[in-house]
Amino acid sequence: MINIILTSAAEYLLSGLERKSGNFRFFIPGKNKESQRYFPDGEVYARIARINDFKNGRVVVLHSGAPRPNAGLVELEIILQILKDHKIKPEVFFTYFPYGRQDKVFEFGETNLAQNLIRKIINYYWVRKIYIIDPHFGKLKWAKKYPIVSISAVPTLIRKSKENFGHDILFLSPDKGGKQRTGIYGFNKKRINSFKIKIYSSKIAVKGKTIGIVDDIIGTGGTLLKFHKFAKKSGAKKVIALVTHGVLDTGIQKIKKRFKKLYLANTINRKEANVDITNLIADVLK
Ligand code: R5P
Q1: Residue ID of nearest Cα to ligand 1 atom 4
Q2: Which residue's CA is the nearest one to ligand 1's atom 10?
Q3: What sign for the dihedral angle of Cα 41, 42, 44, 49?
């Protein structure tokens, strides 16, 4: 038996998961006396009234780190603490890992937030295993030290795009990190700040081709827009986007407007998400 607790950010996945075969039981944390997840001052409430049901089988907490990364983490920690209070050692499944892009010390005086969060979940909350869909730090050396199972939505995104655009798409990564994560060859980029990026043109021939830009995240949309412009200027026939995590709605809208088509996985609850990942979740947990 696999007991799956869905945080409020992951609740939208419930109906899809209920249709999957597997020995799953689903739990939604309880709300406060006003039937809310938040108190009037913004503090988070969560309760697991049926904790005794977990005495047998595995317990998995399913969480999406967006659209509310901070409140979401507080809710996740409350749930993990309740489980710890009852001596339960769970697994955590992040469809999207929050703070995942702060996965290095880029400037003196910063800290690696992604690693700290992983460490805390494992060491303090006794979590046995952490599943993550397309983690930004998936191929970084430090991540290998922890029991992280990295799952990719990219093959599903590629399969879907081929159903509409045929097999002749040239898939490209926007940056070195993308190349490392997916093995898909591509460009080089430098981020100036949250909104501004610079690309270093590559010698890839895109003229007359359908280009599929594969990225892990749409944030501001700046990265994909820049590559769209570059590909079009270089003579690409069509440019489509394949993205795992739709983090910012404003970014998604810009990409939808500019690209021929956006394939977006539903790792975050977004109405534009058109590629379902509940199969990936069910298969890996089984
Ligand atoms: C960067 O390392 C990531 O892989 C994405 O390319 C980036 O986070 C996308 O963000 P934005 O849409 O703000 O350019």
Answers
A1: 216
A2: 219
A3: positive
